[in-house]
C-alpha cells in the first residue's frame, strides 16, 4: 500500500502544462512527510523547466537522501520508496513529453478512438539511485484525453491489474461528457463500493492546442544592425493581434533578449511570440547551452542591466534547456497592459 497524489500546473513560460502523479511506499507519518517533500520538489523543479527525465533524476536523488536519513534514524526505521509519472504538454507543438519511474503508463483516448495505454519506457522506481530515466515524446491531436492514475485504481483483492486496466479503458472509451463526469464514471466502475485497498489518485486532462494564428516566429540575423526591422515587424504583429497596448514593453523585452542572444549566444537565433487572452510570451532561442544570470549592474557599468530590466517590466522570466541549446522567455500580463 501507499500514498498517492497527482497535480496539473502551468510550466514557466511557453504556456506549457505539467502533469504529475506519484505513489509513495507505506502509510502513516513517514509516508505523508515523504509525499510532502516530493510534491514541493516537483513544484520547484517544474519551475526551473527541467525536462521530464531530468526531473525524475532529481527526484530519485531526493528519495535516496530520504532513505539514508531513514536508515540513520534507529527510533523509526522504515522503507522509503516511490513511483512517479511526469509529463509536459506544449500547446504550440501539440506534443507531450512523458517520463516514468516505475509507475503505470497513462491511458489516452484519441478523438473518435478507443482508450489505449501510452507505451513508455518503464524506468526504475525512485530511490534506487544511479539508474537512467528515459523520456518519450508523442504528438496528441486536439481533444485527446489523458488519464494518469496510481496502482490503487486498477488493483484490488478480487481482480488483477490487467482486468482493472481493461475496466479503466472501457470507462474512458464510453464517456462522452465532461472530465468531471468521466472521473465519476471511472471511480464508480473500478471502485463500486467506494473502498480501495490502497490510496487512489486519478488525473484527467484534455488537450487544447494553440492556433497557429496566435504564434509568430522570426529568424534573427547575425548583424545587430539588422535587428531594428525585426522590432518593427513585432510591433506590426501585435497590431494584427489587436494588442497595440503591449507594444512598448514587448519591444523593450525583444531588444534586450535578442541583443543578449547575439552578444553571448550562438547562431541560429530565433524569436517567437505566443499569446492567448491574458498572456503574451516572448521567447528567444539560440544554440548555446550557457544559461543567463540576472545581476544588478553598478552605477558605472555600461552593461549588465538587460535581464534586470526584463525582470522589472514583465510578470516573470526564465530559461530552459533544449536539445538544440536554450530558450530565454519572458511573460507579459496582457490584462495589466490595458
Can you describe what's shown?
By secondary structure, this protein is an alpha+beta fold. It has two domains: 205 residues, Phosphatase 2c, domain 1 (4-Layer Sandwich), CATH 3.60.40.10; 126 residues, Heat Shock Protein 90 (2-Layer Sandwich), CATH 3.30.565. It has a five-stranded antiparallel sheet with strand order 1-2-3-4-7, covered by helices on one side. The protein has a five-stranded antiparallel sheet with strand order 10-11-12-14-13. Helix 4 runs antiparallel to helix 5. The longest helix has 21 residues. The protein is globular, with a radius of gyration of 23 Å. About 3% of the residues have low confidence.
What is shown here, in short?
With about 350 residues, the protein is of the alpha+beta class. The chain is about 35% helix and about 25% strand.
CATH topology of the largest domain: Phosphatase 2c, domain 1
The overall number of domains is: 2
Which CATH class of the largest domain?
Alpha Beta
Parts with pLDDT < 50 across at least 5 consecutive residues: 295-304
Nearest-integer average pLDDT: 84
Q: Report the end-to-end length measured between terminal Cα atoms.
A: 52 Å
Apparent shape: globular
What proportion of the residues is helical, as a percent range? 25-40%
Question: What summary fits the major beta sheet?
Answer: 5 strands, antiparallel
Widest sheet: strand order?
Answer: 1-2-3-4-7
CATH architecture of the largest domain: 4-Layer Sandwich
Query: Can you say what the CATH homologous superfamily of the largest domain is?
Result: PPM-type phosphatase domain
